[in-house]
C-alpha cells in the first residue's frame, strides 16, 4: 500500500519526506531538460493554474512504497527534438535529483509525452504555405 510520506530513521530521530516534496524535486529536474516545452497535468492542475496559482509538481505523480519511489511525468516536447533522447535525459535527471536529495530509491520514471509544442514562427510559416 502506498504511503503519503517516506520515513528515514536513525539513532537521533526520524526524517519524514512528503510525496509532494518528491514531486517538486522531480518536476524541477524534468523542466530543466532541453526539449521539454512544458509539463502537463490533469484537470486539478489546470484549474489551479487558471486561478493564478503555480505548482512545481504539475504533471508529476509519485507513489512511495517502503521508501521506493515510482514517478510518472507528463510532458510536452518541443517540435523537432528526438523524443527518446529527451526521455532518457529526463529519466536520468529525475532519478539523480530525487535519489541525491532524498536518499530514496527510484525504481521507475514513466514518461508520458502528451503533446508537441510548435514555435509561433513555425506555426505562421506553416499557415503561409
Structure overview:
Helices cover 39% and strands 36% of the residues. With 129 residues, the protein is of the alpha+beta class. It has one domain (5-128): Cation efflux protein, cytoplasmic domain (Alpha-Beta Plaits, 2-Layer Sandwich), CATH 3.30.70.1350. The strands form two sheets. Strands 3, 4, 5 and 6 form a four-stranded mixed β-sheet that branches. Strands 1-2 form a two-stranded antiparallel ribbon. The chain is elongated, with a radius of gyration of 17 Å. The mean pLDDT is 84.
Percent of residues in helices comes to: 25-40%
The description of the largest β-sheet is: 4 strands, mixed
Q: Order of helices and strands, N to C?
A: EEHEHEEHEH
With helices defined by DSSP (H or I, 4 residues minimum), what is the helix count?
Answer: 4
Could you state the CATH homologous superfamily?
Answer: Cation efflux protein, cytoplasmic domain
What is the second-level CATH architecture?
A: 2-Layer Sandwich
Estimate the global geometry from the Cα principal axes: elongated
Low-confidence stretches: none
The span between the termini is 55 Å
Mean pLDDT: 84
- % residues in beta strands: 35-45%
CATH domain class: Alpha Beta
User: Radius of gyration from the CA trace?
Assistant: 17 Å
